[in-house]
Automatic annotation (TrEMBL):
GO MF entry, a single one: ATP binding
Domain RNA 3'-terminal phosphate cyclase: 12-359
Protein name: EPT/RTPC-like protein
Pfam families: RTC
Domain of life: Eukaryota
Amino acid sequence: MSTPIHLEGTTLEGGGQLLRLATCLSALTHTPIHITAIRGNRSGGGGLKAQHLTSVQWLGQASHARISGMGLKSPEITFMPSPTTTNGGVGEDVVIKQSTPGAVNLVFQAILPYVLFRGGDEKVRVRITGGTNVSNSPSYDYIEQVLLPMLTLIGIPPIDAALHSRGWSQGGAKIGSVTYTITPLNTKLPAFLLTHRGGVKSIRATVIAPKQYECQIAEELDVMFEKRESRFFGTRDADIGITFEDSQHEKRFYLLLVATTTAGVKLGRDWLYDQGVRAGKVDTVIASLVRQVSNDLLSEIEHGGCVDEHLRDQLVVFQTLAEGRSRVYGGERKGVRLEPSLHARTAHWVAEEVVGVEFDEDGGCEGIGLAVEAEEEEKGEGRADEELVEGLKKLDVSA
Ligand SMILES: Nc1ncnc2c1ncn2[C@@H]1O[C@H](COP(=O)(O)OP(=O)(O)OP(=O)(O)O)[C@@H](O)[C@H]1O
């Protein structure tokens, strides 16, 4: 087996995304890696948290990897996937349990490319428990309204999302659960171009907050939309929808705004306010929530790019694995191209180190054209593995 590629975990963003992307690419391409100073740029000493352990453990089982260094707070791991191709997909039902409200969608982010590119004839239902609305991670609502439609736009078979219950880390930890139904790819993902944005044709607001504030938040949103209509929609008629859900706790205020363009592009921005509201301060919290999220969405619309800040780094893995040159236009300000976020630059770096692709300044990348393993089996290189599928069906991480 070749010497593992070394990745220094404090590079650029230096958080958990570096670990997730590196292990996923390693598992898919059978490339051994060694990551040191894991999450070294995070406060509290870094190292593996439960959510990271869950993802690495699942990918390790799926790729028959030998892993050393697994454990809570561990600062380094070596991940050595089996060099032999295995086939047969990951099974039809995958259940990943977290006993804390660790972000469901960061686990999903880690394993989705593996499920897609591993191939297989059957749809895969992935049920993950944990937090569905957790700060600094994609919420269930963002995944359902932004990431999944954008993946369909770039050529991934539509993925269905079903929310069984919400999971929160604030207002008393509550474990939620989600099922994503994924159709694995049956051939290489062709290169994609996300370069034409189109004009904004509709905006949808998703509000999750204590029931008694429903009317007040709706009014605040109405006033904001009226003031900013021409900045959002230009000369087009405004098409606005607001949905409200009771968050059932004073510490849970969430707002997501998603713009849909004439080219089918989705741009989203959100904020989870989970600090608790001091007596007499609820007006300020609601006003800040609406102002902050609408400012963020406006700035995403005004740069003219085809991805919002968060989606940009989440598409890097698909550019890397597609066949041919994919390009994602990230927008510009005052005639100057917008720099990718630190998360996006970190993802570029990881992909460059692990599989040798190169990202250019225009958001372009020649992908490696990863063959789905079902294709390889037809050529006689794969082998079915019932035992593995059984193991992956249930992963229960109670760390
Ligand atoms: N509001 C949001 N909406 C959508 N995606 C988000 C949002 N906030 C963060 N993300 C995405 O979540 C991922 C967070 O990665 P990051 O390394 O910061 O998290 P992490 O694994 O929790 O690690 P750490 O605990 O080390 O911060 C990135 O892909 C980022 O784009």
